[in-house]
Design goal:
The protein contains 33 helices and 28 strands. With about 950 residues, the chain is α+β, with helices and mostly antiparallel strands. The structure holds ligand BES and zinc ion (ZN). It comes from Oncorhynchus kisutch.
Length: about 950
């Protein structure tokens, strides 16, 4: 081993602290290589690089990283020996480092000979999170060098970089662990590195630990050495070529379970020792899903092992570090006694998502963060493809439409963004992990898969993954791979390479025409928004018109024309009619268009099964025909079509394009609906209206709406049992229906819940409640002082995070603002209620009509604390902003929010989410203006 220790001349590196001043001569290399060795007057050196992105003239090849964390004093020291390829002559190595004390820097040539006797100056540019090391001897283009850095830092208190976390055992002992989370830009907080996704390199990692601990990293341990001081040094096998954000290491005292896949990959699930019991489901699922992906992508998982670790303090849901996936406990651990049907689905989906990343993201990585959807959109969509096959009973496809509805929710606001968007600063990059990348990305892929057929899609992505393995890709590379499903030979000969039936459907895919796919897909990935297609019958033809769908701007609004200017999508349109069972297809590439449907056609339903990412408006009698169809014979349409119609109609009412009574009439058929998905979709709108009028304190409508819902759905509510019996969809329906019924004050529901709660408390909480109704039972119990106090006590003792989540949600539903206040305080302290749960706690309190002002004031008061804890742009900060402002419905509240954002202008101006929040409030205000009157009179009629 080769670790050089230099004298630490802290002063010298301190002297180099300068702000960026000079600008480089060109964007790929720092300036002015000097052949001669100047005296090292560091005071005269200024930071040589002024860009956020690193220069490209030095490429990292191999990191040898040694880390020694001390879990007692909560800090670590490390050394990195970095093998570099220099492209052009330079005196500077510029790389990332954030918050690290770099004590020594040395440059060696390929034979490990020192280039200089002097201690090299390290200059810092904290604004860009970069350091620059000056080598007095020029580093010659075409040569390889070693950069040696010694550094140290605290184990972080937050959730990024190399950070510490604790958990409590049932005997009350607190144990510490150290873990990492790097994506997108926090590897630089753990060790100096070229922290950009294109700088792929190999990693040889070694970790020193006490014998009582286990160290984990991306690769398995190659060798463990006992050191003189009794410490152990685990040397991990050299990794494959990968991006810095995928590096991970953990030092902990966890227990694990393991199994091996058919292809010989060792899969292990780790958790805190007392949670070991909850790891078994995840292990089975991970093995099954890994085997699925190996087959589906036709590429074997390249590492010998895959670990999945439940980390007690974890901010996001999970992170796909190659070979060492980390999870929030609720995303991995499954406790058969306290987890509900949807908890199981969630765990399965998260595992499916992170395993999909082992190919989409880890093997093939986007070139830059502007295309993060190539990771996240794919991983999200692959959840559906893989879970559908591996766990058909979970009926994951029931949730796909909802994924797209969420995407449309964001995309129909003026403040949306294209799937591929500019992102340069760490805050902008963090904000890219949003609904547009995840949900819209997945929905656009779903549309594409339908258009291309499953087989063509699968072959195309196999090709993409193979072509760009261990490398980086951008959108165009994906389109080229998907279109070009022919072999090179077939392609150049001008033929096509499908069976005839496929090629007929996909005529544009003939060799040579593959550019059309790019044109089509660019309209979905480079353009903001979601299209609305209006269809009108004219004789035997269906006349089509497309526009951008906007919920807050009406065609009569003066801003309308400019907001529509230049928008055009290539829409793979599908429709079904009453005269045949087949699906008709048409690629709409112009603003207006028409198709022949025939005179005899009665109803037309466009966007079959909502496989396309667009909304549809039916002009003339179109909506009435469909309303009638649902009343007479709703099963003439698939459950997805029915759900789509419901969603569509209510979206149009929000936009002021369809009157609310039409949408309400449309769901008038729901009493005969037996499918959970459309039923819950319709119910969700009614519930949302209820929560809105309840929150706005409009007593007559609140009362009537509650009466109406309970009356209309009486039959289906009464059919529910308080158990965990039945299929996944039946369980989901029960869970949601009973929760709503109790929330609306339904007496039979409240009485049953109260009985169950008392029973449960009397049993000293040993009795296990049906998991699907636990949250409802707790929420009812939490309304009494003693029930609330008992729940809080049980919360502190419970070893199941999913169980704790249910209790917390119940605690936050209390009508007593003092209690809500107390919860928020506990969240800030971070002891009883972990900081990782603070964002969802704030959102829970904000959803409670008694809590929303409290939550909003709290956010304003503790804004900087929250940003310190979660980082600007993170999912948690965005969740807090959207969650606390989403309940505002008045112009006064909008002004209040605007004033607050202005007061934090420096941060707010870096965030897209602030504009999204304001658009959202605007949408709420307009909804009330447009629809409250209609809702009131419609209810009056119904109640009569
Ligand atoms: N790659 C992300 C983790 C991540 C999230 C990194 C945000 C940086 C910022 C991971 O694959 C992911 O998407 N996690 C989700 C859960 C997933 C099941 C949707 C998350 O953490 O919310
Ligand atoms: Zn992901």
């Amino acid at each position: 081993m080769f670790w050089v220790r230099f004298l630490v001349l802290a002063l010298l590196s301190q002297a180099g602290v300068t702000q960026t001043s000079s600008s480089p001569t060109h964007a790929s290399a720092p300036p002015n290589p000097t052949e001669e060795q100047p005296p090292l007057n560091t005071g005269s050196l200024s930071f040589p690089w002024s860009h956020l992105r690193l220069p490209e003239n030095i490429v990292p090849l191999h990191y040898h990283l040694l880390l020694h964390p001390n879990l007692t004093i909560l800090s670590y020291i490390g050394t990195v020996r970095l093998e570099l390829q220099v492209q052009n002559n330079t005196n500077w190595v510029v790389l990332h480092s954030k918050g690290l004390r770099i004590t020594t820097a040395t440059v060696l040539d390929q034979n490990l000979a020192h280039l200089s006797d002097q201690v090299l100056p390290v200059l810092h540019n904290p604004t860009h999170e970069q350091v620059a090391i000056f080598s007095p001897r020029v580093l010659t283009g075409g040569q390889k060098y070693f950069l040696l850095l010694e550094f140290g830092a605290e184990l972080g208190e937050g959730f990024y970089g190399f950070y510490r976390s604790t958990y409590r055992t049932s005997t009350g002992e607190t144990r510490t662990l150290a873990s990492t989370h790097f994506e997108p830009t926090s590897a630089r907080m753990a060790f100096p590195c070229f922290d950009e996704p294109s700088f792929k390199a190999n990693y040889s990692i070694s970790i020193r630990r006490s014998p009582a601990h286990t160290a984990l990293s991306n690769m398995p341990v190659d060798q463990t050495v006992v050191l003189d001081d009794g410490l152990m040094e685990d040397r991990f096998a050299v990794s494959v070529r990968m991006s810095s954000y995928l590096v991970a290491f953990i030092v902990c005292d966890f227990r694990s379970v393991s199994a091996t896949t058919a292809s010989g990959v060792k899969v292990s699930v780790y958790a805190a020792p007392e949670k070991w019991e909850q790891t078994h489901y995840a292990l089975k699922a991970a093995v099954k899903l890994l085997e699925f992906y190996e087959k589906y992508f036709n590429i074997n998982y390249p590492l010998p092992k895959q670990d999945l670790v439940a980390i007690p303090g974890f901010q996001s849901g999970a992170m796909e570090n190659w070979g060492l996936i980390t999870f929030r406990e609720t995303s991995l651990l499954y406790d058969p006694t306290t987890s509900s049907a949807s908890d199981r689905l969630w765990v399965t989906k998260v595992i499916a998502h992170e395993l999909a990343h082992q190919w989409f993201g880890n093997l093939v990585t986007m070139k830059w963060w502007n295309d993060i959807w190539l990771n996240e959109g794919f991983a999200t969509y692959m959840e559906y493809i893989s879970v559908d096959t591996t766990y058909p009973k979970l009926r994951v496809e029931d949730y796909l439409l909802d994924t797209c509805f969420v995407a449309i929710g964001r995309d129909s606001l003026n403040s949306s963004r294209p799937i591929s968007s500019v992102a340069e600063s760490p805050t902008q990059i963090k904000e890219m992990f949003d609904t547009v990348s995840y949900n819209k990305g997945a929905c656009v892929l779903h549309m594409l898969r339908h258009y291309l057929t499953d087989q063509v899609f699968q072959i195309g992505i196999m090709r993409y993954l193979r072509r760009y393995s261990y490398s980086n890709a951008r959108n165009q590379d994906l389109w080229d791979s998907l279109a070009n499903t022919c072999s090179e030979e077939e392609f150049t000969s001008g033929g096509h390479c499908y069976s005839n039936s496929q090629s007929a459907k996909n005529a544009y895919l003939y060799a040579g025409e593959h550019l059309d796919l790019t044109t089509m897909m660019n309209t979905w990935t480079l353009q903001t928004g979601v299209p609305l297609v209006t269809v009108a019958r004219q004789g035997s033809r269906l006349v089509l018109k497309q526009e951008r769908f906007l919920r807050t701007t009406h065609p009569s609004d003066p801003a309308w024309p400019s907001l529509q200017q230049g928008y055009l999508w290539h829409i793979p349109l599908t429709y079904r009619t009453d005269t045949s069972t087949s699906i008709h297809r048409h690629l709409m590439t112009t603003l207006t268009d028409s198709v022949e449907v025939g005179e005899e056609v009665g109803w037309v339903k466009v966007n079959v099964d909502m496989a396309g990412y667009y909304l549809v408006h039916y002009d003339g009698p179109g909506w009435d025909d469909l309303i009638q169809l649902l009343k007479d014979n709703h099963t003439a349409l698939s459950f997805m079509d029915r759900t789509h119609l419901i969603h569509n109609a209510f979206q149009l009412t929000t936009a002021g394009r369809l009157s609310l009574d039409k949408a309400l009439d449309l769901i008038g058929y729901l009493r005969s609906e037996s499918h959970t998905v459309p039923l819950l979709q319709g119910l969700a709108y009614l519930e949302a209206f209820y929560r809105m009028v309840e929150r706005m304190d409009i007593p007559d409508v609140t009362q009537n709406l509650s009466t109406y819902i309970l009356w209309y759905f009486r039959g289906v509510i009464d059919r529910q049992t308080w158990s965990d019996k039945g299929s996944v969809s039946e369980r989901r329906l029960r869970s949601e229906l009973l929760s709503l019924a109790c929330h609306l004050g339904d007496l039979p529901c409240l009485e049953q819940a109260q009985r169950s709660f008392t029973h449960w408390l009397d049993s000293n909480s040993t009795l296990s409640l049906p998991a699907d109704v636990t949250e409802t039972v707790y929420s009812v119990g939490a309304q009494e002082d003693s029930g609330w106090a008992s729940l809080l006590h049980i919360y502190t003792l419970s070893l199941s995070e999913t169980h704790k989540h249910k209790i917390l949600s119940a605690l936050a539903s209390s009508r007593d603002t003092n209690k809500l206040h107390r919860l928020l305080e506990l969240g800030l302290e971070g002891e009883v209620i972990r900081t990782q749960d603070l964002d969802s706690l704030i959102v829970m309190v904000a959803r409670n009509p008694r809590g929303h002002h409290l939550a909003w004031s709290y956010v304003q008061k503790y804004w900087s604390t929250l940003v310190d804890k979660f980082q600007l742009g993170s999912f948690s900060i965005r969740n807090i902003i959207i969650g606390t402002t989403g309940q505002f419905f008045s112009t006064e509240e909008l002004t209040e929010v605007r004033v607050f954002f202005e007061s934090i202008h420096e941060q707010a101006s870096q965030l897209r989410v602030t504009q999204v929040a304001m658009d959202n409030i605007q949408k709420n205000i307009l909804w009330l203006q447009r629809n409250l009157g209609t809702l009131r009179s419609w209810l009056d009629q119904q109640i009569d």
